[in-house]
Design goal:
Mean pLDDT: 87
Structural class: mainly alpha
Shape: globular
Low-confidence stretches: 84-89
Number of helices: 13
Helix content: over 70%
Number of strands: 0
Largest sheet: none
């Protein structure tokens, strides 16, 4: 593995780790950076390049597990959740609620995985996703209830989880953003921005782990020994930078809401369209 390939893996991991949980589309940013700067499809192959962009998200997912370890152990029934909660007593978020939220995107992701991989991993489709996702985020901030009814993930019902899961299906389009769609959906349903973000992070772990393993399984033959160090370095880079960014984002989203991120997405889409396309 060359130093240049290692550098590319680190940079793409940085992009993934810093943007995975912000509502700006980590996959979209990786596609844009790669298309304009690196062209990993030429370095390896289209199959390896696309799989890399999905698999290194496991690094960011691992960072979530590390930071929310007690919550995940509680969901699995392996540990009683300790510490303070925004609601003093009552039911806790359970695994069934999370599963309900995962079902819609999980089914569509399996059915349309090949189509997404072949036709939607391009800068042009990302620009479309950036704009449409920004409009949804603006709508969420403009039309949300004046007072949030749900201040904690522990208050989310099965119905609300299913509705958020349905809105999450938009994120199968690269550039739309999984966190952007789910946070927007949660806010429109009366969740606080922090509660919607927490639920987004929790749902991200199984759905992104599943997407990564599915992508690896389907394209295992295309991955060579030469490309494995590229994956490993990207994974480690994504993990490190996600650890550094998650706590900062959770504080930021509750303070500035979604509109600044939506404006950034629209500006980015305009720059890419008018300057590079």
């Amino acid at each position: 593995m060359s130093l240049w390939e290692a550098f590319v893996a680190i940079v793409l991991g940085l992009v993934e780790g810093l943007t995975e949980f912000a509502p700006v589309s980590s996959t979209g940013h990786m596609i844009i950076v790669d298309d304009f700067l690196f062209q990993t499809k030429e370095m390896f192959s289209p199959e390896v390049a696309n799989t890399f962009k999905i698999v290194i998200q496991l690094g960011s997912i691992l960072a979530v597990v590390v930071l929310m370890w007690d919550r995940f152990m509680s969901l699995l029934g392996l540990k009683k959740l300790a510490g303070k909660s925004e609601i003093p007593a009552g039911p806790r978020l359970n695994l069934a609620t999370v599963i309900v939220g995962l079902i819609p995107a999980g089914i569509l992701g399996v059915l349309f995985d090949d189509y997404i991989d072949e036709y939607l991993f391009s800068t042009k489709t990302v620009v479309i996703g950036l704009v449409l996702g920004a409009l949804l985020m603006l709508a969420a901030d403009w039309f949300r209830p004046r007072r949030a009814k749900i201040e904690s993930v522990d208050q989310i019902t099965y119905k609300q989880a299913l509705l958020v899961g349905l809105i999450q299906c938009f994120s199968l389009w690269p550039g739309f953003s999984r966190s952007g769609s789910t946070i927007s959906g949660g806010v429109l349903l009366g969740m606080s921005h922090r509660a919607a973000a927490d639920f987004t992070f929790i749902m991200a772990v199984p759905i992104m782990a599943g997407a990564s393993f599915l992508s690896l399984l389907k394209r295992w033959d295309a991955i060579t020994m030469d490309s494995i160090p590229f994956f490993v370095i990207g994974f480690i880079s994504a993990f490190v930078f996600a650890l550094l960014s998650i706590r900062f984002f959770l504080k930021l989203i509750n303070r500035i809401k979604l509109t600044p991120f939506a404006i950034y997405r629209l500006v980015l889409a305009a720059v890419i369209y008018f300057v590079f396309m």
